[in-house]
Specification:
Number of strands: 0
Strand content: under 5%
CATH architecture: Orthogonal Bundle
Structural class: mainly alpha
Radius of gyration: 12 Å
Number of helices: 4
CATH topology: Non-ribosomal Peptide Synthetase Peptidyl Carrier Protein, Chain A
Shape: globular
């Protein structure tokens, strides 16, 4: 299992009480997990702490509006890209 996915799954389970079985790469955050904007904001803050990245809320909002981040794997890919750019 991918490290970022594992950590994201742990956050979603421990902080948001989603069952591990609900959290798959193809799981849709809003549609299947029912996450609202407050929960998304909390998730972003948790991800920033966990992965030591700075996430621009305007950028994330734009990605959600354009439907580029809908599923768990979209978040995993975003974090991989973010870590890659911030470590260089």
């Amino acid at each position: 299992m991918d490290f970022i996915f594992y950590k994201l799954k742990t956050i979603l389970h421990e902080k948001f009480s989603f069952h591990y079985d609900q959290i798959q790469l193809e799981t849709q955050l809003e549609l299947e997990l029912g996450m609202d904007s407050r929960e998304m904001f909390e998730l972003i803050k948790e991800l920033e702490k966990m992965f030591e990245v700075q996430i621009d809320l305007d950028e994330i909002d734009s990605l959600f509006e354009s439907k580029k981040i809908l599923r768990i794997d979209d978040v995993v890919n975003y974090l991989k890209e973010k870590q890659c750019f911030e470590s260089s």
